[in-house]
Amino acid sequence: MNKVMMDERGKRLINRTDQRLSLVLRLLAMANAILLALIIAFLVKESWPLFTDKGNGAWLTLFQSDGWHPLEGQLGMAPMIWASLAVTLGALALALPVGLACALFLQFYAPVALSSGFRLLLNLLAGVPSVVFGLWGLTRLVPLIASWQPPGASLLAAILVLSLMILPTVALTSAAALAAVPRELTAGATALGLCRKTQILQVIMPAAKSGILSGAMLATVRALGETMAVLMVAGNVVQNPSGLFEPVRVLTANIALEMAYAMGGHRASLFASGLLLTLLVWLLVWLATRMANNRCAANSHQMVSSHG
Fold first, then answer.
1. pLDDT per residue as tens digits for the range 242-260
2. Which residues are 235's β-sheet partners?
3. Cα distance between residue 249 and residue 200, in whole Å
4. 3-state SS of the chain: helix, strand, coil percent to 5?
5. CB 224 within 8 Å of CB 179
6. d(CA 259, CA 175)
7. Which segments of 57-107 does DSSP mark as H helices, in order?
8. DSSP label at residue 230
9. How many helices (H) and strands (E) does the chain have?
10. Highest mean pLDDT, choosing among 86-90, 188-192, 281-285, 289-293
11. 3-state secondary structure of 64
């Protein structure tokens, strides 16, 4: 009888602890949602004069390519929007295959001692401040590119530095996705006599596709929001990215450079560009979440079908 009473009392204590933890987690989630809503509301409030202006500073001019001359009322952000997309996509195009190769090596080919050291190296690379990458790019990479094709500070320099920055994110998230593949799939592929290469390409990577894509989205978000490193190596010339060796300016660098002295419609346009970046990040996160949910639903359907 005493044992039964003790068990019931222990279950009650566990349930109370779970309830308290659930309440704390709900409050934290609610606080995060409120904080995000306040940030978006602040951006909308500060950029609102631009949306209500019917003159030269109207918000539609943000997407035009008539130049960025705030003192003259020309607020065309199209060159910086294209530059931001070009830098982000170029960095992702380099970092994704290299990061995936690092993840495959880390998960399937590296010896145990080398695997732990390589993982530590990736973690350290992920923690390096962005200004350090920018300093390295400014003093080493930019002069190297300039010796080949002046001026050196260019779209290419920004892509190379940014790809190095997001490489650990792609590698570590891809390695985690590969490690999360059920062992039953690997065991079944081995039982069928498939070689390691075929197992990885035909079984494991398709099963980990959702996690790999989510990691790629996370890296894209970081690349899109990077400021200091890109500001230091891109050249900061407002023009359409017509070539890899041309200097460009991205939206984040434009905000950092001009917010200190911006006023009126100029200031509102900078907040509008921040709002645009926030909406792009939200869209990428939504796409990543949707892909992950679709993948989970597909896996659940496959499991139900197999049991049926």
1. 889 999 999 999 998 888 8
2. 248
3. 40
4. 80, 0, 20
5. no
6. 39
7. 78-104
8. H
9. 13, 2
10. 86-90
11. coil
Q: Say if residues 103 and 171 touch (Cβ distance below 8 Å).
A: yes
Is CATH 1.10.3720.10 what the domain over 61-307 is classified as, yes or no?
A: yes
> Which pLDDT does position 304 carry in this prediction?
47
CA dihedral for 186, 187, 188, 192, sign (positive or negative): positive
Q: How many CA atoms, within 13 angstroms, populate the side-chain half-sphere of residue 108?
A: 19
3-state secondary structure of 165: helix
Q: How far apart are CA 152 and CA 155, in angstroms?
A: 9
**Whole-number CA gyration radius for the chain:** 25
Residue entry with tokens 């950029």:
47
**Percent share of the chain, pLDDT over 90:** 27
- Coil, strand or helix: which one is 58? coil
Query: Domain-by-domain residue ranges, the chain?
Result: 1-52, 61-307
Q: Which tokens in the block code for residue 62? A: 């943000």
Closest CA to 153 of 245, 69, 219, 251: 245
C-alpha–C-alpha distance, residues 104 and 201, integer Å: 10
- CA–CA separation, 75 and 82 (whole Å): 15
Mean model confidence pLDDT for the chain? 82
Neighbours of 46 (CB within 10 A): 16
Taking alpha carbons only, the member of 89, 130, 125 closest to residue 224 is: 89
Q: By percentage, how much of the chain surpasses pLDDT 70?
A: 85
Alpha-carbon separation of residue 84 from 142, 150, 230, 258 (angstroms): 19, 21, 10, 17
- Pick 132 or 51 by higher pLDDT: 132
| pLDDT of 57 strictly over 50 | no
Question: pLDDT class for 34, splitting at 50, 70, 90?
Answer: very high
